[in-house]
């Protein structure tokens, strides 16, 4: 009976470990990377505005490039750990987001200091007409990804919690039955 109970507890613990590894490897890591992407997207918006308003051009272009690289790296991580069911959603969000970001960087790099200083309104109008639709598409697809990953984290956390409670009760009851 003790051997049977030991094997039963071992199977429970193995199952819990796999649930935790999935929670950590997929859900928590995905959530952290979507938050990192979101933070960098906000930073990019501030940086492009600063360029348009005449801020330090070279420094801001470097910030844009670094933030875009960070976002691309985070999307790569999301793709690596994705389940088959999430991969298309991640790729759609990545495609629309990278299209917006690369277009933003290209536009900012095409501006001269004279353009920025003398034509702020026309630069802004071009940004608004050319990049706002790309930004909206990026926001829309990224929002779907965030909602999916948020729900995945909630579901996986609740699932792990359920199994921990179930196994705790089962082991407690088995302990009395075996003794």
In short:
This protein has helices at 2-52, 57-81, 84-110, 113-118, 120-178.
Keywords:
single chain; 179 residues; mainly alpha; 5 helices; 94% helix; rod-shaped
Describe the protein.
This protein has 179 residues and is mainly α. It has helices at residues 2-52, 57-81, 84-110, 113-118, 120-178. Helix 1 runs antiparallel to helix 2 (57-81), helix 1 packs antiparallel against helix 5 and helix 2 runs antiparallel to helix 3.
Explain the layout of strands and helices:
Elements: H1 2-52, H2 57-81, H3 84-110, H4 113-118, H5 120-178
Helix pairs in contact: 1-2, 1-3, 1-5, 2-3, 3-5
Order of helices and strands: HHHHH
Number of helices: 5
- Biggest sheet statistics: none
Q: Runs with pLDDT <50, length 5+?
A: none
Task: Report the sheet-strand fraction.
Answer: under 5%
Task: Report the helical percentage.
Answer: over 70%
Q: Which shape, going by the Cα principal axes? A: rod-shaped
Mean pLDDT: 91
Question: What structural category characterises the helix and strand content?
Answer: mainly alpha
Q: What gap, in angstroms, lies between the N and C termini? A: 9 Å
Number of strands: 0
Rg, rounded, reads: 24 Å
């Amino acid at each position: 009976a003790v051997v049977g109970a030991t094997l039963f507890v071992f199977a429970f613990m193995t199952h819990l470990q796999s649930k935790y590894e999935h929670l950590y490897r997929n859900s928590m890591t995905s959530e952290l990377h979507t938050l990192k992407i979101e933070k960098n997207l906000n930073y990019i918006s501030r940086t492009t505005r600063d360029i348009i308003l005449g801020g330090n051009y070279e420094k801001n272009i470097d910030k844009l490039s670094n933030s875009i690289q960070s976002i691309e790296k985070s999307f790569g991580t999301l793709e690596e750990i994705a389940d088959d069911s999430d991969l298309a959603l991640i790729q759609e969000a990545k495609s629309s987001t990278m299209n917006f970001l690369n277009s933003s960087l290209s536009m900012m790099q095409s501006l001269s200091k004279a353009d920025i200083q003398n034509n702020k309104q026309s630069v802004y109008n071009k940004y608004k007409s050319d990049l706002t639709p790309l930004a909206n598409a990026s926001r829309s697809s990224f929002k779907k990804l965030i909602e999916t990953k948020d729900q995945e984290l909630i579901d996986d956390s609740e699932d792990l919690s359920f199994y921990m409670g179930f196994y705790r009760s089962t082991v407690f009851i088995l302990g009395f039955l075996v003794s």
